Amino acid sequence: MRRSSPCFVEADILVVDDNVANVELLIALLEDEGYARVDGLTDPRDVGHRVRRRPPDLILLDVRMPHMNGFEVMEQLRQHHGDSLPAVIVLTAQIDNDTRYRALTLGARDFLTKPFDHLEVLQRINNTLHLQRLMQERAERARLLETLVAERTRELALRARQDPLTGLPNRHAVLDEIRDRIDQGRSAAVLFVALDGIEEVARVHGFATADQLVGVVARRLRDRVRASGQLLGVWNSTDWVMLSDCVAEEQAVAPIAECLLSCFEAPFEVDQMQLRLTARVGASATLPGRTAEQLVRFAALALPSGAGAWQGYDESLEHALQRRTGLREALSGAADRGELHLAYQPKVALATGDIVGAEALLRWESPAYGRVSPGEFVPIAEASGEILSIGRWVVLEALSALARWRREQAVPDDFTLAVNVAPVQLMQPDFARWLIDVVGASGISPEHLELEVTETGLMQDMALAMTQLDTLTGAGFHIAIDDFGTGHSSLAYLKQLPVSVLKVDRAFIRELHCNHQDQKLTGTVIDMARHFGFATVAEGVEQAEQLACLARMGCDLVQGFLFAPPLREGALLTLVPAGFADSEAFLSGVGDVRTGTAMGAAGKKPAGPRTGRAGA
């Protein structure tokens, strides 16, 4: 009679006992209780085959049997199935401690003693099946969790090697690929690609547009790279790396680099806008002893400065980098160690030949590197931020010199000294107030200190530049735009900025006497300055023919090697009293032009520079 409804009627149960009567008794008992999948075996040697063919959920296993006892059957099953061994309830009339311990050691879940108590048999079977189901569910959850963890781990591993914005390999993946090729002895070229213009797009159109643009660039380059079997990866937001199998020869790398650069010839379409970027490419190649990191660094070091160009690495670039690094370290504290000094290049009035001012030019005599050109160390100082302390030193040194000259009456009362202001100085919010304070403390009138700023410096932050320059001109300083015509020249800017002097860059003066185009450009700048009320200064004048052209055009002041190079203080003060009116250089250059209408009345000095904005 069925006493209860079993919870696991679908369970597959196998009864193993050499006594046929015991097998039939247990099968009948289980079937009467509702279990529908019950089998019996009397030969223990058949158990292994049955379990392999259809693993049961539960085995009711006798201990004492011929051919193989129950312990041997369990050992065989454990050997073949390990932890997936089906649940086992041991059937035995002998329930001594040794039997119990050995059975438990082999994985038995429970015991049924002979003769069987039917209710006990059913309850122990039900308990074991319940426990088995719980263990199976737990094992399945563990396997599922393990699968999910493995998938997530693979996903994270993939993401750790991918750029999230483009899906391209990131620097870790690129370096691993380079290492693999080095280990395999394959010749390869590493091309470092600098994308120029992305930051500007972000500033003008927003970061979302810039991100879209990067994706469009990635697709265009990836399509091109796929076709040639090369690897493209992202090094950082604006620098990418391409790896190509090729020999370390320029003729092999050139087509690859030019192909890359050609991808930037057409604009990129983003949100119905045609956006343009430029690129530069540096290249290096696998050679014995070079590591993956070195190859990328060498390629980055080889980046040319000009857009749309490529350059291969050579050791001279490494030497140049080492020199720049050494100069940057040596420049720190150079002013405090007395290694810096100012040289002064006279400014000559074309109307009179008098020295009416000078430009203070920074010079560095390094104990380690000797005399270092400003063209080499000033950019290093600007990049490192050292220019801020150096710029303050220049101003203080120039003020000290000018105050000393005026006390000694070595220069005329209207003599002006010009100092260059680096863009990073102009972008310091407190620069104008600091300059006003130190000039005031020096006893020098602000109108005698002229500040030369570059067009590029003004364009970095026009609003801040306007604020600074307005404050300075309001305090009486004169502002000159240096290297005019080589940067972002604009009539609109000239109208807005409180400028009083335009300096014509030496690039227009170099061939002024023989290049008609330079004559037209220079004449236009001088005429425009005259219209706005600006004084004009031509720099780099080295030949009398150039001076004659400038005189005919009505230029106010000139400076250059025709009269004097940058001089030490003593040499400058020796020249100031006499000027250059009677010098052969001045007479041969100006000659009869002095009496022409372009110069106005002979013998008069040019009008002082106007302050304030054009049209004010």
Automatic annotation (TrEMBL):
Domain GGDEF positions: 186-315
GO molecular function, one term: cyclic-guanylate-specific phosphodiesterase activity
CDD domains: EAL, GGDEF, REC_RpfG-like
InterPro entries associated with the record: CheY-like_superfamily, Cyclic-di-GMP_PDE-like, EAL_dom, EAL_sf, GGDEF_dom, Nucleotide_cyclase, Rev_trsase/Diguanyl_cyclase, Sig_transdc_resp-reg_receiver
Domain Response regulatory: 12-129
Annotated positions of the 4-aspartylphosphate modification: D62
EAL domain boundaries: 324-580
Organism domain of life: Bacteria
Classification via Pfam families: EAL (PF00563), GGDEF (PF00990), Response_reg (PF00072)
Keywords annotated in UniProt: Phosphoprotein
Single GO BP term: phosphorelay signal transduction system
Protein name: GGDEF domain-containing response regulator
Organism taxonomic ancestry: Bacteria, Pseudomonadati, Pseudomonadota, Gammaproteobacteria, Pseudomonadales
